[in-house]
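Hello again, I could really use a second opinion on something today. For a while now I've been wondering how a particular protein folds. Please have a think about how the structure follows from the sequence. Here's the protein in full, and shout if anything looks odd to you:

***
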Amino acid sequence: MTPVHPVAAYAVRVADHLVWIDCEMTGLDLGKDKLIEVAALVTDADLNVLGEGVDLVIHADDAALDAMPPVVRDMHAKSGLTDEVRASTITMAEAEQAVLAYVQQFVPNPRTAPLCGNSIATDRGFLARDMPALDSFLHYRMIDVSSIKELCRRWYPRVYFGQPAKGLAHRALADILESIRELEYYRRAIFVPLPGPDVEAAKAIAADLLEPGGSV
C-alpha cells in the first residue's frame, strides 16, 4: 500500500471540518428583521470543537428592537440579549470579519466546509443578506440536524423521544453546543457503527434499490 503523505492526510482532515453557526434575530422576516447575535464553532469530523469559537452581539437601534413581535421581545428580554444589543458597539461588518477570521484558522480553503446547525436555512438567509463574504466562503451544502430529528421521529421514535433535553437558552453559542450534542446523540443512537458495511454489502444494498420494485 502506498503511504499517504502527511500533508495530503492533513488536507483530507481539514476538508472534513464542519462550520457551526447560529444566529439570533429580531424576527424571521428577511425583509425587515435584524441579525443581532452570531456565534460560530468549527469542529472536526468527529465533532470535536476546534479553538475558542466566536460569540458576538451586534448593535441594533431601538426602532428595530421595539418592532420585535411580542414572543421574540419576551424571549430576548428573558435571555438578556436585548440589553446586550443596546449596549453593544459591534457593527455587522466587524462581526462578519471576526467570524470569518476564526473559521479561516481551521478552514483555509473556501467552499469546502458545510454550514451546520438546526433549521440552518433560516440562519443562512440572514448570513447571505448581512454577511455575504462569510456566506460565500462556506460550501453551498448544509448539514441540518433538524432533518435527522425529523427522520428519527418517523423511523426511530424511541430515539426521537429519548434525545437530550435542550436548555432553550435562545442564545447563539448555547444553541450551537446543543446542536453539536444532538448530532453526536444521533450518531451514537442510529448510525451504523464503524467500520460500517463492507464494500460488497454496500454494493448489494445499492443493487437491491435498483431492482424493479426495490426503489420507492
